[in-house]
């Protein structure tokens, strides 16, 4: 029985690796932000730069999550904050381009953000394609992501992809 369980687990991991596109391992996900209580303000961000030497231009991609926490009910006084989340919670994607061009999209729902614990893998889906029934919270293969996501971002060890519908 133990050998059978190991074999099934190995097959499942192999399929999952193929879906996500990883070859060595599939990192485990961090606990959702709502399960990581914090008493102080918190922000984590990632910066990626893309330079096109032939064109002599660069782009900066900045992804961040701010204040991903659940507050005690007595600290949530406002009527619009019924879910006990920090009023400062925010997930954001920003792109800065040549000639001071700038675009940003953000969402106050920090539970849309996911991250791997032991590898560079994180993302957020701001908006799903209207026709999609299934909603993934974790990493998706790049092709699957392009089909399902209307706006958001996903950073995996071998790819950076996103669509921003911002200002």
Automatic annotation (TrEMBL):
- Quote one Gene Ontology molecular function term: tocopherol cyclase activity
Reading the lineage from the top rank, the first entry is: Eukaryota
Question: Pfam family example for this protein?
Answer: Tocopherol_cycl
Protein's name according to its UniProt entry: Uncharacterized protein
| Gene source species | Proboscia inermis
């Amino acid at each position: 029985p133990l050998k059978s369980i190991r074999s099934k687990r190995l097959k499942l991991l192999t399929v999952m690796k193929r879906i996500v596109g990883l070859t060595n391992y599939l990192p485990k996900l961090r606990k959702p932000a709502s399960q990581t209580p914090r008493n102080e303000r918190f922000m984590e961000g990632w910066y990626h730069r893309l330079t096109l030497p032939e064109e002599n231009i660069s782009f900066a991609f900045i992804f961040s999550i701010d204040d991903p926490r659940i507050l005690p009910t007595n600290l949530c006084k406002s009527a619009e904050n019924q879910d006990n989340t920090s009023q400062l919670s925010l997930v954001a994607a920003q792109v800065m381009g040549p000639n001071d061009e700038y675009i940003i999209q953000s969402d106050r729902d920090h539970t849309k953000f996911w991250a791997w614990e032991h590898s560079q893998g994180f993302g957020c889906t701001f908006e799903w394609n209207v026709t999609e029934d299934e909603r993934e919270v974790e990493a998706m293969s790049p092709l699957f992501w392009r089909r399902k996501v209307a706006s958001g971002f996903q950073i995996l060890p071998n790819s950076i992809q996103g669509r921003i519908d911002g200002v």
